[in-house]
Amino acid sequence: MRDSMTPPETLQTARLILRKPREDDAPLIFRTYGQDAEVTRYLMWRPHTHVQDAQTAIQRFVSGWTSETRFCWLIVTRDADELVGSIAARKDENGVNLGYLLARSHWGRGLMTEAVAAIVRWAFSDPSIFRVWAVCDVENRASARVLEKAGFLCEGVLKQWSLQPNVSAIPRDCYSYAQTRQS
């Protein structure tokens, strides 16, 4: 894989716009999903307690774009320009690793599957990318379903893979899902 990737700052789907975060997005992130304990349950960070937590997150997003190794897009609806979540693609030695979250008020509508599919299309447009993968907690059936609907195959269980402080103080087992250029 090349040392750097240059993704588009904006991707569009039928219902969504995925866009690079801006500094002024922090209050919106905080209100929409950052402080929601249900949204952050299976994530590696605790719910935000102050808008400064969202500002810190945006600084990490900007740093990732600058280093060309981690790219986070905010997900907004095309029709109402409403923030509904975020999705990240992180370059690794085997391809691209995904992470995502969706505001609770938008669960069950297929929006995250649509966003994941957009990132997969972008990733595989780069001839040096052969694998796009993600993990999810073994109890996070909704996230597993998103990946399955987006065409990912479950490769197995990674034992004690991810520390999710909102669920447990010890690392938890996760399913590993992937798409490869040959899938």
Descriptive account of the structure:
With 183 residues, the protein is α+β, with helices and mostly antiparallel strands. The protein has a domain at 10-130: 3-Layer(aba) Sandwich (Aminopeptidase). 27% of the residues lie in helices and 32% in strands. β5, α3 and β6 (131-137) form a beta-alpha-beta unit. The two termini are 19 Å apart.
The major sheet is characterized as:
8 strands, mixed
Average residue pLDDT: 93
Structural class determined from secondary elements: alpha+beta
CATH architecture of the domain at 10-130: 3-Layer(aba) Sandwich
Number of strands: 8
Strand content: 25-35%
Shape: globular
Computed CA radius of gyration, to the nearest angstrom: 16 Å
SSE order, as H and E? EEHHEEEHEHEE
Q: Ranges with pLDDT <50 over ≥5 residues?
A: none
The span between the termini is 19 Å
Q: Give the name of the CATH superfamily of the domain at 10-130.
A: Gcn5-related N-acetyltransferase (GNAT)
For this structure, the CATH topology of the domain at 10-130 is Aminopeptidase
Q: Can you identify the CATH class of the domain at 10-130? A: Alpha Beta
Strands in their spatial order, largest beta sheet: 1-2-3-4-5-6-8-7
Question: Which percent bin holds the helix content?
Answer: 25-40%
Total count of helical runs of at least 4 residues? 4
